[in-house]
Write a structure and sequence with these properties.
By secondary structure, this protein is of the alpha+beta class. Helices cover 22% and strands 45% of the residues. The protein has seven helices and 22 strands. A hairpin with a 2-residue loop joins strand 6 and strand 7. Helix 1 runs antiparallel to helix 2. It is elongated.
């Protein structure tokens, strides 16, 4: 039942006058009947005032009860404007998101990073928040293939408010190794040989030999039994134990930015690519470090392009405070760790000796390494 109906019963001396008044007033009355001098019927809610007035004029006792209906249920919430606004916002949101790009999914990429593809799509106006009706997906497919040389084929399709980009990468050309150029393998460092593996050429040393830097390890020149000389591209792998020295220095009074202890937070509502501030004013820090974290909203496990960005702002000040020996050791150890990670990752560190030297201005680590690794270096054979 959508329309609101009232069940009534009336009794009194002028009952028939009341009934005739209902008919003359044009009140729609359903299922009416009389029993034991009591009149029963059903009327619409809108006619209740008329019926009450007639009952008072006729001196009739009126009883009423309303049926359950959808309109009665909704009328209980007619003054709750927040619910109405929420329903309206949800309805408008459904309409908006159905015509807007919410998710972009990239499939088929292995060598090409998703960020690179997203950047190219952004130039074609395919991004979160773009209006789907404004996108020419067939045109964007062709343009994406032209913009990125590593893409051989691209297909873009729409699934609801989701854009699926399928790509096929080009086949990389195999690296051309100049194996026909005659060359020798020489020692890149002075070392004691630990292993010898020869693929092409003739080994000039064996495991256990000590060789100086530049010594011939694998020769690309061979002599046949008849005395004829032939040239080859020497290839192989020779490892050895060698020594290296690295120097790390740090000043006692370096110019650096350090935290002052003042920390603030700023929150912003991210709607696609637009950030709406949720704070008033701002910080008065002259120098600061900012750490941003995004917490996206989720519905049924799917991440939405809407979330809260929280910026943690730490005030810093430029200082040249004197560092303690413990702080100096820590900073120099970090430098040494980064050096080993970046430059010695392909070697085995057998031994490490660190010698500390201090003066009034700085501290120095002189680190002596004993390493085991490849000592091969190609050297072309020039023929006159």
């Amino acid at each position: 039942m959508l329309r609101r109906r009232i069940r009534i019963n009336a009794e009194g001396k002028e009952l028939y006058r009341f009934i005739n008044g209902l008919h003359s007033e044009g009140v729609a009355c359903f299922g009416q009947y009389c029993r034991s001098d009591v009149f029963y019927g059903e009327i619409y809610r809108r006619d209740l005032k008329k019926v009450r007035r007639l009952a008072e004029e006729c001196g009739v006792q009126l009883k009423e009860a309303e049926y359950r209906s959808l309109m009665k249920f909704l009328s209980g919430y007619r003054h709750r404007y927040g619910i109405a606004l929420g329903v309206a916002a949800a309805f408008l949101g459904c309409i908006y998101f159905s015509q807007t790009v919410v998710t972009i999914e990239i499939q088929g990429n292995e060598r090409i990073s998703s960020d690179s593809v997203m950047s190219a799509l952004s130039e074609l106006d395919i991004r979160r928040g773009s209006r789907i009706g404004d996108l020419d997906l067939h045109y964007c497919e062709n343009e994406l293939e032209i913009m990125m040389d590593d893409i051989a084929w691209a297909g873009i399709r729409r699934t609801g408010n989701r854009i699926v980009v399928q790509i096929k990468e080009t086949v990389e050309k195999p690296e051309m190794v100049h194996e026909r150029i005659p060359c020798n393998i020489v020692a890149a460092k002075a070392a004691q040989i630990t292993s010898v593996t020869v693929h092409k050429g003739m080994a000039m040393h064996k495991a256990g030999d000590f060789v100086p830097e530049g010594a011939l390890l694998i020769s690309g020149i061979k002599q046949t039994d008849t005395g004829r000389m032939t040239l080859h591209h020497a290839a192989g792998e020779i490892t050895g134990i060698y020594e290296e020295t690295a120097v790390f220095t740090e000043k006692y009074r370096p110019l650096r930015y350090v935290p002052t202890g003042r920390v603030g937070k700023e929150r912003r509502l991210r709607l696609f690519s637009v950030d709406i501030p949720l704070f008033f004013g701002g910080n008065d820090y002259e120098n600061c470090e900012r750490d941003s974290r995004l917490k996206s909203f989720r519905i049924m496990g799917k991440e939405l392009p809407v979330g809260i960005v929280t910026d943690t702002i730490t005030e810093t000040a430029l200082t040249d405070d004197t560092l303690t020996d413990e702080e100096m050791d820590k900073m120099l150890m970090e430098k040494m760790y980064l050096y080993e990670k970046n430059f010695l990752s392909g070697c085995k560190i057998i031994k490490r000796d660190v010698k500390r030297e201090k003066n009034e201005d700085s501290m120095t680590f002189i680190t002596s390494y004993k390493l085991e690794g490849s000592i091969c270096r190609q050297k072309e054979i020039f023929i006159k």
